[in-house]
Design goal:
Blueprint lengths: L1 H22 L2 H28 L2 H18 L2 H6 L7 H26 L5 H76 L14 H53 L4 H15 L4 E5 L8 E5 L7 H5 L3 H4 L7 E3 L5 E8 L4 E9 L7 H65 L5 H34 L3 H16 L3 E6 L7 H22 L4 E7 L6 E7 L4 H4 L4 H13 L3 E6 L5 E7 L10
Helix pairs in contact: 1-6, 2-3, 2-6, 3-5, 5-6, 6-7, 7-8, 7-11, 11-12, 12-14, 13-14, 14-16
Length: about 600
Amino acid sequence: MIAAITVLAVVGMSTSWMVAETTQGNGEAINVAGSLRMQSWRMASLYQRILQDSNPTHRSDLQQAIQRFETDLAADSILSVLPSDETTPLKQVYRQVENGWQQRIKPDLISLLTTNTTTAADAALLDAVPQFVAHINDLVKQIEEATEAKIFVLRVILGVAVIGTILAVILSIYLVNNILVTPLKGLLGLTDQIRQGNLAVRTELGGEDEIGQLGQAFNLMAEDLSKLYQDLEARVEQKTAELTRSNRSLDLLYRSITRLHGIAPDRAVFHNVLKDAEAVLGLGNGTICLKEDNDQQGDVVATTSSDGKSPMCQRANSCAECHDPHAARMDTLPDGRQILRMPLTDAEKRYGMLAVDVPANTTAERWQVQLLEALSRHIGVTIASEQRSEQHRRVSLLEERAVIARELHDSLAQSLAYMKIQVSRLRAAVKNPADATEVTAALEELREGLNSSYQQLRELLSTFRLRMEDDDLGMALAQTTTEFAERGNLPIALDVSLGNLNLTPNEEIHLLQIVREALSNTLKHAHASQAWVSLQRQEGNNSLQLRIEDDGAGIQKTANLHHYGMAIMDERARALHGILQYLPRTGGGTCVQLDFTPKTRIAHAA
């Protein structure tokens, strides 16, 4: 039907185009033919004027009118509408006009132009013009009738095409309703029944066309849905079992991670992890044996075997054979059992082996192997993390001992060396009774040295307690300033702004000791009424500036009283690779200023 409609449309448009093409130019032909009547009457008027006064202007106008008439009579627009058949009325009328012009009208007009005399024949020309014009009227009428005939044919063709198209559309609607809509409505009703759960419905549509193929496809789909529905319950149960197993596996990993990373893992922790894994996996007994590459003998830290013996140890002749990284993952025992082995490793090294006893006639499934691999990785990471933590604790302990040794060397060791010299001096003075003054001076210096050493010992003990009790430098500085403020009844203002910089323990110890030494000097020698402690991060870089200020007597007057403490502070500043300056404070007093750049990185946000 679409093809029929298309053919009607193409035929109608093609025919209409052809008719329109033949009609093209008819309007111009009618206009030109109609102008011939006016030109005829004009030539008659000029002819009559020439007969009356023989004006040369009239003769020239007549000559031009004759040429124009002859040109318009043979115009292409008129010739294009003339049929080729000489018997047609339009062609015959045109021949009458042409003959009348060539044989009667034109010769008389030319004769008048070439002679100056007037004859009776010239006067008779005026009587022939009305008849000539009547022939021209017939020509115009014939052209109009021919044009109207073509338009009528065009109307007929278009009417036939419209009627044919309407009939084809009506027939198409009827066929579409019977062939497509009704069967599709039936299929839609059957699909609604399938949606309600009736999978036994079938359609009776058949045939080789698309609707028949659709009906066959519907029946096949209904059969497949019936089979799938019958199998759905079993698959749902299978998926439910898989999800339950996955949840149990995730729960096992969660509980294992909680056990392994909560506290330092021991044999009890490893044993509980194996018991949980055994309950989830449904396999045999498990064993965790630790052995690093340099160890000759492995250490079975946990096993769930009832007799306490690892299945892995029963099979292997030696620990090296069992922990061989190139050995097969699955080993078969003589009684049909299998040993599934998983290495305990992290990114750096191998720490041991996790082995599970697989009963005879049982095969470890893929999910069980994957779960054991994940569990072994977690155990390996836990062991590695614990070893690294232990190593860090050892390094921290050694660093703390090194700090204590250096502090003792810089303070008590030097004081004791000084007192040793004084004891030698005292021994020499005692042998000579005449040197009583020397003995008294040596004893006095020993007393001052002991007091100084005792004070330094108290300072060191206070500093170490501050570092061990609190890891925050700002809190340690606050406790220090509070201690010295109470000791000397001296107000001390504290301002600490480190930003996100972290300091090493050595840097914090040096800073704390410099602050304590400077405040001690302030209490002993400055006679100040106010002190200030400021630790600030400098703008634009990661350097720090420490300032201890007071409004006391000033550095120039008191420097000779505490030069030993100043030397200690200078040594600490050099240890920090910083610059320590003793400056007079604006408004009176002393300013101890330390500028240095910490070695630590900017701390990352947690």
